[in-house]
Design brief:
Helix content: 25-40%
Number of helices: 14
Distance between the termini: 48 Å
CATH topology of the largest domain: Aspartate Aminotransferase, domain 2
Strand content: 5-15%
Largest sheet: 7 strands, mixed
Strand order of the largest sheet: 1-7-6-5-4-2-3
CATH architecture of the largest domain: 3-Layer(aba) Sandwich
Bound molecules: pyridoxal-5'-phosphate
Number of strands: 12
Order of helices and strands: HHEHEHEHEHEHEEHHHEHEHEEHEH
Shape: globular
Number of domains: 2
CATH superfamily of the largest domain: Type I PLP-dependent aspartate aminotransferase-like (Major domain)
CATH class of the largest domain: Alpha Beta
Length: about 375
Amino acid sequence: MRQKTKLIHGGIPTDPYTGAVNVPIYQVSTYKQEGVGGHKGFEYSRTGNPTRHALEELIKDLEGGERGFAFGSGMAAITAVMMLFNSGDHIVFTDDVYGGTFRVVTKVLNRFGIEATFVDSSNLENVHNAIKDNTKAIYIETPTNPLLKITDIEAAANLAKEKGLLTIVDNTFSTPYWQQPIQHGADIVLHSATKYIGGHSDVVAGLVVTSTESLGEELHFVQNSTGAVLGPQDSYLLIRGIKTLGIRMEEHEVNTNKIVEFLVKHPKVKKVYYPGLESHPNHGIAKKQGSGFGGMVSFDVGSEQNADNILNSTKYFTLAESLGAVESLISVPARMTHASIPEERRNELGITEGLVRISVGLEDADDLIEDLQNALGE
Ligand SMILES: *Cc1c(COP(=O)(O)O)cnc(C)c1O
């Protein structure tokens, strides 16, 4: 089954109990037992719920793994994955991971003895050098947010295997439609499903897929023990969103290519960050490991003032955090999504005051280009 078909026919496409063509919202917390322990696979909805189960089976199929899990947010998913580790374990992270990931690792998980080192994983040498005796995993985000840096998943997974470590990939920006990290050797793939997977700015959710049944068992134990599960209504909305993920991603890409072409030529734009550009330092790797480059673009306009002028004058690019939905969004990472990263560190990474990030939506590309043209001036 090809990916676009799998979006619609993967997982549990129809309700096994009634034949309804969509698995309904099982708004239920507990299930009648025919004698003690005699149940139909569901006992209590923290442990398992049929609507959530249908979503978990679907994301498992889309990523080509063994077990899928749905959480109440991307951060809940990431935190649950971190609960697979023990006090004293060390993990090597991509340096420009999502701001919330950096925050939970450095301000919460550190209190439980999880140690972390952040390196530019687009150069694997850095990852190699950061591995210590107590290192247990390599955690990568590719492409990264907001600089769209690319890490070679297969090379990272090979290094991890050689050293006996797990490879964890945050696949939020690419989605399983474009990139399936387990096929390149990753052990765990996770998502903020709040973004492209949901796609309509109406759900906060997280998804995880494990490459093996045994990792899945460990994660299910954590999910059931700590309890940050996704509710049935939101699970239903994600299944609905996933049905159109393919056509949405294709169209995001078409619009993005046109906008990137416009930005690259604009005299006020100092630099454009997009993995689909041949001039992107890891364009070749992005092309090797994914079938598309996504709809996220960052560009530097030189100063906070210039960035503000743009934010204040766009009509169709809405000033908001988040990304990956049908409507185009615009933000300044330094003062929004990445504000929780200390300024000194932001500057080290290149997340300057003049850096503008856009999430290209599904409006008419000509309207979006006109909007940016007006905002940039000339
Ligand atoms: C948004 C995001 C997260 C966090 O997900 P939430 O659903 O907001 O909790 C994690 N990783 C990436 C790459 C994100 O964009």
